[in-house]
């Protein structure tokens, strides 16, 4: 299926980082080929340099990064030696690229059709009307519903998956020989991700393109890859066919990565004793209304629609669903950042949903939250120790004692007491999430709500943080409400699972029941969409 | 149609706001020290009580405050802004006579500062870290920091006194009796110095803002997408970066536009420009309250009108607003 003449050939590529970076080279002596008709997956964790080679191919290297050795051969010429003007002629015409964030990768002020037509314009092809016709045909090809309407839409009027389809249409407009896809599905829901992967595979087969697919997710690799290149610290650690790398990894780092993938193998359920529930949620409703005007109807979104469940002391309940399913609203209601419209939230006998003002402030410490984005959830101007001690201090603990506790907590989450005097930016994503956990624990909560707490992290870091959560839960006899869109993560940590869709609970049961014997079609659909599932089944 | 509804809604709100402003202004003036009747009488050389009483009676100043307020508000509703005791003319006529001069001056300055500011800002953004870019920014900072009246005086010294290129004051050559095209040319010549002086400050602000906003926009993902399409840097700069960077400029331009009636006092005074600013200054000195109130009203009305226009322009520029609020 591949004709062995590589479309792209990277030879001994070395890219130097500017002085003062945490290492000397972004990539060092990297060599691999991408042939027509194959999907080459470049896998690695953040900071591995996996996107850098792609940027060099496109001539879009960040400022300060420059090639110092090697060559990038495309169509017989070394791309590194091209002038910016020569490079520009290749971009979009013979090499297309799609990016990770479909939300921000399109110009918010331009209609979709105009943005696609721009590709033709950039390379002086066709006249105005032909460009629009071509754009329409492309939108149709990438499977956008109602393409004649979508062509006149602005990006904000489309969903994330649709925007990524528009990006793909743009990248493929001039039938490039090489498509570079930089984490194209990372920001998407699991079912959307499955559709986009299928689309890319499909188009690649139909057009016989060479695809360079950059990802951090081995599940995705198992879905699409013909060949795999594993990178770490800017170097290639393993290179081979998808079969070889996935089933018989030679390098220990590859093995570690593969093992770190949260597996579908569900842990044995841990003691089914059912004491009095710690948290009891009954008939919770929450409707968001966009305020209508005199002439405009108000819009209503049912974020929570008659949601009921219980959570026993020491139990972990996983809430899974796609974006817009209401899972985050549920979490925010439980910590009372949001006030439910109706229904009750009882925490060990206290009616949490009715608390207000001072009473709410007094009880707040009992439920704490760990947020998704470890970069945005810590104040960059506060030292870590202060960030952790703030909560207890607000509750009347003297400063000295609170700071001492902060040290102990940082020790407990594995960062060491010296971390108290440092600022958040000095820590990596995984470390910041540990700080977030310490901050939540500082208030001695009974229940912790973790909202996508590991979603922003690399797989190996993800595994470590999940382990820490599990350990702390045992040690401090905590209960955990774990909100995630990632079913594999939920499977790993939860005792019972709640599947949500459109604000309703679709299915709930023990982790075993839900994953192995799903009753509802929607749950099955979600499970089927997990990338790399067949691969894992084959491995088992 | 969405815009028609929006405009009607906003105009209705504007009427309410104007009404409140009128009332507020009225009380503000009432609280100001000084008795207009006493001043009038003083200038007439007569200080006897009887004359004062007559004056008060004639201008309704002896009535209780609520009667004065009612008369004033109901007058405005019929576009009657009262009588200027000092100038012996209806306030409306005085204002309308001066308004064109001011609008010509401030309007020219507005267009000038906006166009040149955005141009200089985009040039500086494209030449970041280059000497030419730094020079633009240094000039912008200089204009931003220099007091307006000083710039005005220096401009007069340089261009009128030394070089003799441009007239130093006034709106047209007195006694020349120009008509038609010659008049336009004459006014244009007189306009250059005050308009440029007035434009410099806002031009400096637009320059700085455009540059900052463009540098921020150029970091966005969609710019990388545009580059990946193979578009030329100029197209990317104009179509993707500048368009997105202009959104905050619109807000600022709306603010500047709102000051078009009252914001040129200094410039008009220095250049003896026969506009509203000078009228207001004189009215203030002479405690010509009705005239002051009238000018306040016109300024407020213009601010509101430009607020509405800004909102509409913003909606045209950014499609995301329509479905939002």
From TrEMBL, chain A:
Boundaries of every ABC transporter domain copy: 8-258, 279-527
GO biological process: peptide transport; transmembrane transport
One term of GO molecular function: ATP hydrolysis activity
Organism of provenance: Billgrantia kenyensis
PANTHER family the record matches: D,D-DIPEPTIDE TRANSPORT ATP-BINDING PROTEIN DDPF-RELATED, TRANSPORT ATP-BINDING PROTEIN
Family of the protein in this entry: Belongs to the ABC transporter superfamily.
Name of protein: ABC transporter ATP-binding protein
Classification via InterPro entries: AAA+_ATPase, ABC_transp_ATP-bind, ABC_transporter-like_ATP-bd, ABC_transporter-like_CS, Oligopep_ABC_C, P-loop_NTPase
Gene3D superfamilies: P-loop containing nucleotide triphosphate hydrolases
Keyword line: ATP-binding, Nucleotide-binding, Transport
Top-level taxon of origin: Bacteria
Automatic annotation (TrEMBL), chain B:
Keywords on record: Cell membrane, Membrane, Transmembrane, Transmembrane helix, Transport
Main location: membrane
Listed PROSITE patterns: ABC_TM1 (PS50928)
Example GO biological process: transmembrane transport
Keyword Secreted: no
InterPro entries for this protein: BPD_transp_1_N (IPR045621), MetI-like (IPR000515), MetI-like_sf (IPR035906)
Compartments where found: Cell membrane
Positions of the ABC transmembrane type-1 domain: 99-314
Membrane topology, from the record: Multi-pass membrane protein
One term under GO cellular component: plasma membrane
Pfam families, per the entry: BPD_transp_1, BPD_transp_1_N
Family: Belongs to the binding-protein-dependent transport system permease family.
Descriptive protein name: ABC transporter permease
Record lineage: Bacteria, Pseudomonadati, Pseudomonadota, Gammaproteobacteria, Oceanospirillales
């Amino acid at each position: 299926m591949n004709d062995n003449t590589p479309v792209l050939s990277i030879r001994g590529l070395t890219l130097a980082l500017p002085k003062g970076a945490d290492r000397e080279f972004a990539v060092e002596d990297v060599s691999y080929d991408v042939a027509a008709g194959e999907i080459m997956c470049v896998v690695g964790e953040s900071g591995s340099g996996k996107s850098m080679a792609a940027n060099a191919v496109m001539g879009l290297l960040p400022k300060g990064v420059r090639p110092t050795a090697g060559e990038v051969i495309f169509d017989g010429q070394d791309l590194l030696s091209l002038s910016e003007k020569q490079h520009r002629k290749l971009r979009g015409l013979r090499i297309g690229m799609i990016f990770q964030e479909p939300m921000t990768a399109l110009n918010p002020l331009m209609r979709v059709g105009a943005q696609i037509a721009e590709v033709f314009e950039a390379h002086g092809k066709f006249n105005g009307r032909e460009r629009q016709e071509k754009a329409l045909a492309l939108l149709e090809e990438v499977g956008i519903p109602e393409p004649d309407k979508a062509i006149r839409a602005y990006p904000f009027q489309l969903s994330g998956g649709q925007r990524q389809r528009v990006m793909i249409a743009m990248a493929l407009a001039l039938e490039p020989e090489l498509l570079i896809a930089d984490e194209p599905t990372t920001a998407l829901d699991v079912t959307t991700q499955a559709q986009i992967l299928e689309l890319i595979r499909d188009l690649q087969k139909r057009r016989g393109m060479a695809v360079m697919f950059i990802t951090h997710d081995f599940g995705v690799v198992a879905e699409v890859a013909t060949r795999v290149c594993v990178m770490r610290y800017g170097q290639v650690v393993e290179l081979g066919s998808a079969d070889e790398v996935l089933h018989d990894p030679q390098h220990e780092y590859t093995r570690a990565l593969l093992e770190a993938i949260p597996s579908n193998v569900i842990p044995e359920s841990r003691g089914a004793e059912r004491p009095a529930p710690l948290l009891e949620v009954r008939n919770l409703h929450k409707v968001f209304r966009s305020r209508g005007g005199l002439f405009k109807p108000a819009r209503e979104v049912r974020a929570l629609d008659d949601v009921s469940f219980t959570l026993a002391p020491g139990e972990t309940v996983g809430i899974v669903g796609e974006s817009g399913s209401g899972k985050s609203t549920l979490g925010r209601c439980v910590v009372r950042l949001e006030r439910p419209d109706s229904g009750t939230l009882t925490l060990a006998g206290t009616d949490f949903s009715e608390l207000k003002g001072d009473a709410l402030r007094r009880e707040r410490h009992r439920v704490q939250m760990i947020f998704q984005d470890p970069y945005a959830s810590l104040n960059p101007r506060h030292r870590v120790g202060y960030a952790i001690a703030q909560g207890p201090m607000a509750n009347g603990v003297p400063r000295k004692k609170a700071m001492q506790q902060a040290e102990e907590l940082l020790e407990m989450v594995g960062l060491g007491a010296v971390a108290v005097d440092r600022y958040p930016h000095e820590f990596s994503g995984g470390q910041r999430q540990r700080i977030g956990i310490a901050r939540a624990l500082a208030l001695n909560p009974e229940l912790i709500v973790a909202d996508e707490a590991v979603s922003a992290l690399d797989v190996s870091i993800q595994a470590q943080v999940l382990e820490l959560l599990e350990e702390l839960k045992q040690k401090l006899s905590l209960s955990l409400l774990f909100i995630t869109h990632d079913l594999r993560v939920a499977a790993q940590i939860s005792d019972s699972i709640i599947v949500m869709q459109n604000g309703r609970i679709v299915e709930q049961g023990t982790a075993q029941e839900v994953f192995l014997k799903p009753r509802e079609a929607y749950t099955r659909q979600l499970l089927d969409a997990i990338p790399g599932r067949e691969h894992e089944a084959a491995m088992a | 149609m969405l815009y028609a509804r929006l405009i009607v809604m906003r105009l209705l709100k504007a009427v309410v706001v104007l009404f409140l402003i009128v009332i507020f202004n009225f009380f503000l003036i009432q609280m100001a020290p000084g008795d207009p009747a006493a001043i009038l009488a003083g200038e007439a050389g007569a200080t006897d009580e009887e004359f004062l009483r007559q004056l008060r009676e004639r201008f309704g100043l002896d009535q209780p405050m609520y009667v004065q307020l009612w008369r004033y508000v109901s007058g405005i509703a019929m576009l009657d802004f009262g009588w200027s005791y000092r100038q012996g003319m209806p306030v409306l006529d005085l204002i309308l006579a001066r308004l064109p001069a001011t609008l010509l001056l401030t309007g020219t300055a507005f267009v000038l500062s906006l166009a040149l500011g955005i141009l200089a800002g985009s040039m500086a953004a494209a030449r970041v870290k280059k000497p030419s870019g730094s020079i633009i920014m240094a000039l912008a900072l200089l204009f931003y920091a220099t007091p307006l009246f000083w710039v005005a005086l220096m401009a007069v010294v340089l261009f009128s006194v030394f070089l003799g290129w441009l007239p130093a004051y006034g709106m047209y050559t007195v006694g020349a009796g120009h008509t038609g095209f010659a008049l336009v040319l004459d006014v244009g010549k007189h306009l250059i110095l005050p308009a440029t002086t007035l434009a410099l400050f806002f031009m400096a602000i637009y320059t700085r803002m455009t540059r900052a906003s463009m540098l921020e926009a150029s970091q966005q993902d969609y710019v990388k997408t545009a580059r990946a399409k193979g578009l030329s840097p100029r197209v990317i700069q104009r179509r993707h970066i500048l368009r997105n960077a202009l959104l905050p400029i619109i807000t600022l331009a709306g603010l500047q536009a709102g000051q078009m009636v009252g914001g040129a006092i200094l410039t008009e005074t220095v250049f003896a420009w026969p506009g509203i600013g000078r009228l207001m200054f004189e009215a203030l000195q002479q405690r010509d309250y009705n005239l002051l109130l009238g000018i306040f009203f016109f300024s407020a009305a213009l601010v509101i009108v430009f607020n509405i226009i800004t909102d509409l322009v913003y909606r045209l520029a950014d499609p995301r607003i329509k479905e939002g609020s």
